[in-house]
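Figure 2 data, in text form.
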Amino acid sequence: MIAPLVVAAAQPDCVAYDVAANARAHAEVVRRGRARVVVFPELSLTGYELDAPTVAPGDARLAPVVAACGATGSIALVGAPVADDAGDHIGVLAVDAAGARIAYRKMWLSDQEAVRFAPGPAVAVITVDGWRLGLAICKDTGEARHSADTAAAGMDVYVAGVLDSADDAAVQDERARRVAADHAVWVVVASFAGSTGGGYDVAAAQSRIWSPAGEVVASAGRETGRIARATLRPA
């Protein structure tokens, strides 16, 4: 039997394009989060600025996040534009005391995103303390095939960083409940708060954590800086 896992879904303040400032904000959230895994929204390091330069795993501006993870024993799942041999992607950086690595690349892109970014090649599952975390970014969560393929790869938790407008906030709950019902897994969604590019003047916020029964067990509310935290126990 694996031990319980403390997870936090964060919605930090975000300054457009300013990776250094946003990394400091992420580090503060990691220190306050008191969680083994801290999940951040889509493109949390740059804002939803589709022309923002990519962030390399070895970027020195990530040092505050690395240090915070080292101090707390946390793993931060951070949203950023990333690059590999296939091109630029909307990605997740997994950050811990040892540094950062590209953990996942978004597979389902909007038409606007696809002008610049390439879709990721495959689903991704990372293991933390015996828990298998399936990774997703925003539009991925609306594709039943994505969660099904991730479940087939083996997952205990479906973890997503997203950005929705306030008018579409209900979509997050609908998708999370579907994933929980279809695959009997915990669902963690870190949802962008405040305003950002792409016309998202008021983002949905309300980062939440759902049980395998589809019940909301933690919610962060609408303000920036809030955190939803829960202790996940084996189903």
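Caption note: The chain has one domain: 5-230.
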